[in-house]
Amino acid sequence: MQINTRTIKAKDAIEVYITALATPDTPAKLQAEELFSGIRKVLDSNNVRIFQERAFGTPNALDIARSIRTRVYDPFDDGVEPAWLAVPEGINGQLAGAQVHAVGGCGIPEILRLEGQPCGRILRNGRGEYLTLSGISSSKDGCLTDQAQEMFEKAELILKQAHTNMLSVSRTWIWLGDILSWYDDFNSVRNKFFVERGLIAPKRGINKLPASTGIGVAPHNGVVPAMDLISVIKPENALEYLEAGGSQDSALKYGSAFSRASKATSQAANTVYVSGTASIGEDGKTKYIGDAKKQIEESINNVRAVLHEMQCDDGDVVQAIAYCKTAEIEKLFCHQWSDLAWPTLTAIADICRDDLLVEIEATAAIQADV
After folding, report:
1. Total-model pTM
2. Which of 235, 307, 325, 331 has the fewest Cβ atoms nearer than 10 Å?
3. Where are the domains of the chain?
4. CATH assignment of 2-367?
């Protein structure tokens, strides 16, 4: 197993980002024991609590991992499930790995519930109010666009219960399943919802769009779409947005409502969320069609350009995910970019266009004070 930890400390707070990769060629049960025991040791040694978590693996591996996580994490298991995300078997085997964002020194996160079920956490203290949600989805059958609408409405309902709204959201991850069959329809729902809530405001001239990843991954329970998010409730006006960055223009120009990056105050840092980024040029067209190596290089360069515009560099990256269209592309990424300084988890998934072969997201954090 590989476990990569990035720690940011302030005077009265600590944030720990964990990227744990399973040992290849190992049965799923042993992978899960090793993975979650390793994460538990990091939580123990830093005296921190989980704030948000996601795990990737085959459906069989996630079935096995779920009960093992509950046992190993006790008493850290507060009932909020991670985003359990089903992906094909990849370079690390059945269980690809997990990523955790944990916090400490600033109080214990409270549990948020939706329809009686734990669905997220909120942390309130003298530094601010911060909220995370995981796996928010529709409870109804029906067409995917109706389910997407309900997903956003449910997230909004929980935010309202916490005395905030969608304008406080800094980052979303949206798990779309068979993304290639309905991405345009999803964008229509999201765009309309964001216009109605004031995130897209042509008359104001300033859009307030969260950074985002929308990817061809389905939650393990099969309910799509589903969404994770991060919100900064206080301090107010703590969010910054980069709508266009590097050589990439605004994604809104080709119908997708997200910023290239957002910056938010967090417990111990100023945190930069770089959206899922691919080999797309300034004209909005795919670059290097059919050339996986060139697309990976372009995606990394685009992420670095956005980081630079947000006053970050490679050394500030605390977590990254590379979504690769095929197992062969995942192997290419892992072998030829093994020296990339970012703590990176890889997963096999379709991207939002059939000719895109890789998409990379990153989170960077710069210490806020000493």
Report:
1. 0.97
2. 235
3. 2-367
4. 3.30.1330.40
